[in-house]
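Following up on my earlier thread - several people asked me to post the actual chain instead of describing it. Fair enough. Here it is, all 211 residues.
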Amino acid sequence: MTPWLGLVVLLGSWSLGHWGAEACTCSPSHPQDAFCNSDIVIRAKVVGKKLVKEGPFGTLVYTIKQMKMYRGFTKMPHVQYIHTEASESLCGLKLEVNKYQYLLTGRVYDGKMYTGLCNFVERWDQLTLSQRKGLNYRYHLGCNCKIKSCYYLPCFVTSKNECLWTDMLSNFGYPGYQSKHYACIRQKGGYCSWYRGWAPPDKSIINATDP
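Reply from S.P.:
Thanks for posting it. Predicted structure:
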């Protein structure tokens, strides 16, 4: 059994629009949570892959060209290979070689980066401008905030460090508006609230219930 199997419990998010395959089940997670809970967050292009005999169905090892690192400088400053289960039923991830640049998130075990369907992995050209800004600095500012999922009404925040995530009410199974355009950031006074804009966050002009 490879270290990736433990990641299914630790991290849940979208991966290329999939919620799982057969036995692979992932919990929804806002991209900011995926960022803050990952050891490694990078932008990269896949330039090769090979199947190695590791785990019950083998492990796919992708060779990548790292374009930019957003998180993980102390864990692994430069990533050359990423590992994932070969079977999609074990949350293995399928990536195109020499075709797209990807936003990749994952965990580090024994000096290796592991990722899969339950990590936030997306084609770079599919990310919104707000998500790219989040990767550069906004998500990092909100790692001390908590994004609270709301699956059905009524639901409320219970502490000042929470933002209520309601995408699932209207977009269950897919990333929604808050995921694509908002970050949960601590404002003046210590309260966390959703933020989207060009100027630095300011509690005096941001409605804590927005969106």
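The chain has five helices and ten strands. That should answer part of your original question.
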